Amino acid sequence: MVPALLEKYREELTGRVLPFWLRHALDRVHGGYFNCVDATGAVYDTRKHIWMQGRGAWMFARLYNSFEPRPEYKEAAEIIFRFLAHARHDEPRCWFSLTEDGKPAAFQRKPYTAFFVALALVEYSKISKDAAHVAEAVELFWLIEGWIRRPELLGRPPLPGGVGYTQLADLYVLGWLAFELNKVHADPRYEKVIQSCIRRLSAHFHPELKLLMENAATGDPEQFRQFPEGRLICVGSSLEVCWLFLQIAEEMQMGSAHFLREAVLGALEYGWDREHGGFYYFQDLHGRPPVALESNMKLWWPHTEAIIACAQAYKWTNDERFLEWWQRVDEYAFRTFADPMHGEWFGYCDRRGEVATPLKGGPYKGIFHVPRALLFTIQAYSPQDNRAMRKGHAGERFRG
Predict the structure, then answer these.
(1) In terms of C-beta density within 10 A (0-12 exposed, 13-18 middle, 19 or more buried), how is residue 185 classed?
(2) CA 153 to CA 356: how far, in whole Å?
(3) Which CATH number fits domain 2-390: 3.40.50.2000, 1.10.3470.10, 3.90.180.10, 1.50.10.10?
(4) DSSP 3-state assignment of 318?
(5) Cα–Cα separations (whole angstroms), residue 138 to 133, 185, 233
(6) Which of 125, 142, 338, 339 is the most buried (most CB within 10 A)?
């Protein structure tokens, strides 16, 4: 069963997903790629979102470095990376979106755009051999760490009525970037950041449900659960963080992340829609109405994270429950999101699994979740790909 799934993923990755973006999206005039495209690949918005550009540059560089050194992957990485020269403001921050030729269009008061720029810098440096790219990534890492610790530096000051909490997304970006940087710029502080992230993740772990809550209070947790953000569950985030930190812990020989294995199975069981199939996007711990109107929708990315998590967990444990979940999620995801006619996956479906919008790319979807899930699952079971990565190519056995 596993070999058949891996062959299916290799065919999907190289035959339908990557060709879709290579054929339709690259901007060879201005650099970057058009991340807002419809079902056929036609551009419906020429603005380029920098965190999507960072993800795209990282993805193609990762493919070239660790999967197969195809010229088209290197060319795509170079074209997209070139556009990232427009990403930084006069301040240290990065723009959220730019016009097609690189003029600033929008800011966000969040650290995540800078994170994906830094991630691209690390991975592309393995192609460019340019130490300046690593140096810029290091600079961005410590800026991001400071922005997360002190959000007022991004224009989000603490307010008298606000409630303090940590977010999975913040721990995710710090842990992943520290892990990647440590491979190209060894510094004992990176390991300390990762260990701190794992400790803080334990505060997100719900012991009865055995999954990660999206947010964890820095004060009284019972008071925090009076608010929707204190009761928020996003299965996609929980699974993504679990497989990331489990992989980091294994690579770095840390033994402190075992609770995350429980959280994989807990998230799978809690988030599945037993009537229509697929994972809910958001849920409320107490069954109250989630604030986000898309909560009942089925989005592509929680399912791609579930595929990676199930594949990893089955490999590590040989627990048949993970194989069963892997098959269930695979069947649902390919039936619901994959487009065998034009390639790539649809992103947004209603609760019943009907496509809600024909976009294949937008401000929040691009060259990232689908190819990453296919690539990392293949590499988890591929000795050849793993040998290549152990020789120093992009990122050990899994993305971290």
Answers:
(1) middle
(2) 38
(3) 1.50.10.10
(4) coil
(5) 9, 8, 32
(6) 125
Token pair, residue 209, equals 């449900």
Q: How far is CA 357 from the centre of its chain?
A: 21
Q: What letter would DSSP give residue 13?
A: I
Kindly state the greatest CA–CA separation across the chain.
56
Of 190, 96, 89, 90, nearest in space to 134 by CA: 190
Across 313-347, b (16+ Cβ under 10 Å) vs e yields bbeeeeeeebbebbebbbebbbebbbbeebbbbbb
Pick the closest to residue 282 from 270, 272, 292, 267 (CA basis). 292
If DSSP codes are grouped into helix, strand and coil, which group holds residue 161? coil
Return the closest-CA partner of residue 391 out of 3, 69, 39. Answer: 69
Nearest to 236 by CA among 173, 290, 300: 300
Q: What is the pLDDT of residue 253?
A: 87
* Cβ-contact 244, 264 below 8 angstroms: no
pTM of this structure: 0.94
Residues 396, 123: contact at Cβ < 8 Å? no
Query: What would the two tokens of residue 366 be?
Result: 């691009």
Q: What is the mean pLDDT of residues 160-186?
A: 96
Closest CA relative to residue 252, chosen from 312, 300, 182, 318 = 182
Yes or no: say if 6 and 382 are a contact pair by the CB < 8 Å rule.
yes
In 10 A of CB 287, how many CB atoms? 8
What's the pLDDT band for 383 if we cut at 50, 70, 90? low
Buried b (16+ CB within 10 A) or exposed e, 57-92: bbbbbbbbbbbeeeeebbebbbbbbbbbebbbeeeb
- Write out pLDDT tens, residues 60-99: 999 999 999 999 999 999 999 999 999 997 778 999 999 9
AA identity, residue 294:
E
Residue from 148, 178, 164 nearest 249 by CA? 178
